[in-house]
Amino acid sequence: MTVPDLGTDVFTELGRVAWAAVVLEDYVLGLCSFIDPSNPREDRRPVGQKITAARKVMHSWSGSATREEADAWLEHARSAVERRNAALHATPLVWVEPGRQDRPEWLFLGEMPRNGRLYVERPLTVESLAELRSVLIAATEGWRDLVIAVSSERERQTAKSAPSPRG
């Protein structure tokens, strides 16, 4: 059996999805390690577990607009990472209509159920992949300003929880 050819346009868009996924994961890991410091050479937890741990740390902080913004950003990123995982770990499907030799094969990605999501068959088209890429890119928005704000917030929270010196 031969491997179905994706075509240059679909293959190119799949590469763009992969690149957007790499960038998003890097941003997420950076923010998580800012909130919940760990050695990236030793910490081999999946990105979803790092998001959960960072959010847990933030929930121990006193309430602030920055904490709420970071929590919402991480939740949005977690959702996008789940969509990335579903697509990039999907089962490739080839639909062939019996008795139809004049129609080319239809290609899909069978996204297995994860974290309460239903099974989905994503068409392996430029349009479908571009939609996924836009979700991944949208999840990165605001990252730079948020990292700066979280840095200040972490210092403020740490100073607040530190014992005061006795005079």
Structural overview:
With 167 residues, the protein is mainly alpha-helical. The chain has one domain (8-89, 125-161). The chain is elongated, with a radius of gyration of 21 Å. The protein has 5 helices and 3 strands, in the order H-H-H-E-E-E-H-H. It has helices at residues 8-35, 47-59, 65-88, 126-140, 143-161; strands at 91-95, 106-111, 120-123. The protein has a 3-stranded antiparallel sheet, with no helix packed on it. 59% of the residues lie in helices and 9% in strands. A hairpin with an 8-residue loop joins strand 2 and strand 3.
From the N-terminal CA to the C-terminal CA, the straight-line distance is 80 Å
Q: Domains counted in the coordinates: how many?
A: 1
The run of helices and strands is HHHEEEHH
**How many beta strands in the DSSP annotation?**
3
SS-derived structural category? mainly alpha
- How would you state the average pLDDT, rounded? 87
Q: Note poorly predicted spans.
A: none
Global outline: elongated
Q: Bin the strand percentage.
A: 5-15%
Any idea what the radius of gyration is? 21 Å
Number of DSSP helices?
A: 5
Largest sheet: 3 strands, antiparallel
Instruction: Write out the strand line-up for the largest beta sheet, numbering strands in chain order.
Output: 1-2-3
Helix content: 55-70%
